[in-house]
Write a structure and sequence with these properties.
The protein is of the alpha/beta class. The chain has 8 helices and 9 strands. A 5-stranded parallel beta sheet has the order 6-7-5-8-9. Strands 1-2 form a two-stranded antiparallel sheet. Pfam families: APS_kinase.
Length: 277
């Protein structure tokens, strides 16, 4: 898509007030300087990519307005209901959509568990998708830094995408450090009661640091990385999560991973997520 086409599309969108002033803003097309290959500038505001546009549509049922209500973002945007519901989609693929949110320190085995869990579900004929904390920064969140406000936005976006996957009837596996209870609670609040399943990888800092698969702890100790969770930024462990996994063994052990995955699969099975609602 060329710049002109992007501008025409952008001109029909509204910018989230979180990244501009409270009034609705549109890209200024009268100023040729307002269009640049890396993104768009909004009347002197800092450059942001199109991914910052507030969503103006989503799926139905679990994230729609309450029965009898009309959901409006502003006077120009109204929820458009679809006759195919979440229940219809779940019946089609014979499972129940939910979000499995795996949280823990770097090196605790979150990504390894996510992959093992996805394989275990696949072997049972169940559809899942992984939103990995590193992988989403290659695309969806590639415009975000590791500053506090951008890390919060990173979690918010993943939570919103995970909600859409769950609404589609898919078992979404999100594996992120997500160190703060407030941000995890905000993601939980996006979903119907019971559909956010928090899995805490309860692994001590010294074990994670000894593993250090990416060499990040070593760099953080050397002062090369600031604000690294567990070193000079806190991690707030869950107080009331659904599943706690203590992974103090070799995280790459196939038997260990399959055992941990089976714990989560058993929870899903016992709570009705592996069959349609």
């Amino acid at each position: 898509m060329d710049v002109a086409a992007v501008a025409r599309c952008a001109g029909r969108c509204y910018v989230s007030p979180a990244f501009g002033e409270s009034r609705n803003l549109r890209p200024s097309l009268s100023d040729s300087r307002s269009l640049e290959p890396a993104g768009l500038k909004f009347r002197g505001k800092s450059q942001r990519r199109l991914s910052f546009f507030r969503r103006i549509m989503a799926t139905d049922e679990s994230i729609s307005a309450r029965p009898g209500e009309t959901q409006q973002i502003n006077g120009n945007v109204v929820w458009h209901a679809c006759p195919i519901t979440k229940s219809d989609r779940q019946e089609l693929i014979k499972q129940k959509g939910c979000v499995i949110w795996i949280t823990g320190l770097s090196g605790s085995g979150k990504s390894s568990l996510a992959c093992a869990l996805s394989r275990a579900l696949y072997n049972r004929g169940k559809l899942s998708y992984i939103l990995d904390g590193d992988n989403v920064r290659h695309g969806l969140n590639s415009d975000l830094s590791f500053k506090a406000e951008d890390r919060a936005e990173n979690i918010r976006r993943v939570g919103e995408v995970a909600r859409l996957f769950a609404d589609a009837g898919i078992i979404c596996i999100a594996s992120l450090i997500s160190p703060y209870r407030k941000e995890r609670a905000a993601c939980r609040a996006l979903l119907p009661l019971g559909d956010f399943i928090e899995v805490f990888m309860d692994v001590p800092l010294h074990v994670c640091e000894a593993r250090d698969p990416k060499g990040l702890y070593k760099r953080a100790r050397a002062g090369e990385i600031k604000g690294f969770t567990g070193i000079d930024d806190p991690y707030e462990p869950p107080l009331d999560c659904e599943i706690v996994i203590q992974n103090n063994r070799d995280e790459n052990s196939s038997s260990s991973l399959s055992e941990m995955a089976e714990i989560v699969v058993t929870y899903l099975d016992q709570n009705g997520y592996l069959k349609p609602s």
